[in-house]
């Protein structure tokens, strides 16, 4: 109530009818800006389901078929993916928070492809992160004891991942302590490009989402290859922030919320990649 009264008094002072008379002097104009956000839609369904139709799976909300933002019927080829999307919709409470439904968003992007991006172009966008990969840039301030401790932690935590990446994909990436970007040879880029092109179009959308969240191709592939968990990948990408938070203190709820949101996005992306890169077949046993 106190805030409302203060806001009301402010508006009265700005109003020309209630403003006290004063000498006409040049004054700066004042503006009050109101910004209205659309409320999340209410949940309009009670039950979710999965239908099998023509070799694909559809999501139902009561008796309605789920559709993409462009109006296309929501269809996926993977039954586990359809079940996961149905669970996302079933987990919504009174309001539908679509910003937290990462699997549904990834499927909508793959189905509608609003930017009309082909797989080769998407792979090139992913490769553009290679020279700016988070774990290739390490602290360079040797005179600062705090920075030296951070560098030692980066060497301990990041270098084993980089060494695994070089051995796994036959490349030679080296971390840098300079302000310039590390050198990445054309052969290294070609090796990573061949590996990414081996995935289908849908899985590449998952890679784009994970790399954009972690700002690291190396951590994304390490997570997809099951070398590290999603939680470890997020902590490694936030290593400097976590170190500084431990040194200076954490902002209540803000750091934890950011970490949980990153984990949710990366987990959805990795699951999306795996579910679109494997096939599942169910056959009934012949009792005769």
TrEMBL record:
GO cellular component: mitochondrion
InterPro entries: ATP12_ATP_synth-F1-assembly (IPR011419), ATP12_ATP_synth-F1-assembly_N (IPR042272), ATP12_ortho_dom_sf (IPR023335)
Main location: mitochondrion
Keyword entries, A-Z: Chaperone, Mitochondrion, Transit peptide
Coiled-coil ranges (or none): none
Localization per Swiss-Prot or TrEMBL: Mitochondrion
One of the GO biological process terms: mitochondrial proton-transporting ATP synthase complex assembly
Family: Belongs to the ATP12 family.
Protein name: ATP synthase mitochondrial F1 complex assembly factor 2 isoform X4
UniProt source species: Frankliniella occidentalis
Higher taxonomy: Eukaryota, Metazoa, Ecdysozoa, Arthropoda, Hexapoda
